[in-house]
Amino acid sequence: MRLTRLAVATVLTLPLGVTTASAGPGPDPLPISVTTVLPAPALALPDPREAFPLVPDTVIVASGPAATVAGQLATAFRPATGFALPVVPDAQPGAITVRLTGGDSAEGYRLDIGDDGVELSADRAAGLFYGVQTLRQLLPPEIDAATPQDRDWVIPGGHIVDAPRFAYRGAMLDLARHFHTPDEIRRYIDQISRFKVNHLHLHLADDQGWRIQIDSRPRLTAVGGAPGTGVRGIGGGYLTKDDYRTLVAYAADRHVTIVPEIDMPGHVNAAQVAYPELTCDGVAPRPRTDIRVGYSSLCIGTDATRRFVTDVVRELAAMTPGPYLHIGGDEAHSTAHADYLAFEEWLLPLVAEYGKIPFGWQEIAQTPAARDAVVQYWNHEGDPGPTVASGAQVVLSPADKTYLDMQYDLLTPGGLHWAGTIEVDEAYDWDPAGLLHGVPEDRVLGVEAPLWSETLTDLADIEFQAFPRLPAIAELGWSPRATHDWESFRARLGAYGPRWKQQNVRFYESPQIHWS
What are phi and psi of 279, to 5 degrees? Predict the structure, then answer.
């Protein structure tokens, strides 16, 4: 818990005559178009004279590495259509063509839809994948059905050229306060990747539990992952190394990078229960199942602490192919300030020694070593000065705008409200480039929407807190500033509601949105 318009961008948002209102009867359902996509594309030009019918003999043309993404497209469309949709290597008319162009855009794509075919092209596989997510939104919500549907399938005509504004577009899931199973995490990966989110930050250890296997420290999970760990003693569990590697691979297939976090030098009570030598008096603290923060601290500078931290960093880095390793660093209220600075000056280079870019909450910006790290700004009431002055790249997660565990209002079930309540408009209506005075846009690596699990026990809780706010944060991370428009966004979001219902996603039907 955390207490304390690009020149290239042109977007046509709402079709003529479509309006929205905050009260009274809602507008007619928003017609599906290249302009109704979430997140908003950089360039979206509809062509109402053109449309591509998906029919039983439609084929998907792709070869080489593009065939993998073409297979994902076919897999997404087959259940509801009942069509074979074979992936074939040779070009032919009336097909969906998926091809790699081999340029320099890591995540951009181009989509052209006409009567005679669909062409999806991108320089890299990630761009093709994001183009597939756009295509999925250009068919009716029933495309997500698990069984064949008796209806016509027509993709509206038009032209999209798209690429992200920021390289890092993240979501965070807390496994320490309540453990979430690999199946639940996979489901969350599926959902966030639909909105072109490309990083999943896993909070793996905290005062209430330790959720990742470390071979050299087996008591971490034997004790910290045992039944009865977590808030209110509900649950227990942890990821084995095989679980973790499988999740990393599953995420990579969807172009999501896993960012693991072990929070320290605070938030370490579970580790100290398992290994009392990490305390300064050598006495194990009692297990904690409450939601307080700030009371635990590693004993800074001891050989036992340095060996422990090195073991954890070494093993976690070895099983993580992504570039980042998150070392927490927040709310270390029980660590003397001088000790905190010394610890971070030792720890951040240690992470780099094991081949990873260190990542930490904004408190790490107090140390000179943070200039080579990624600083995650979260505390909207704290002093942003060190973050601004550090010169580091910044990921923005202001708690009063992005924390998905905050209640929508004081009457919604679950969640907390220490950072305030966050309705959809508050999650959407801010600009990452203008949040921190003195941090220019080229230092903003991206945005992340954290979801802490003090009140979340299952997948339904996760989905209710995340949706529909996560698409708001995703659009801030992906779409050009020029496309930022609340009326357009809430119309497009309302039109997405039937898709969540088709997918059996439990989402909050915000009264701010006219749900189709």
Answer: -95, 160
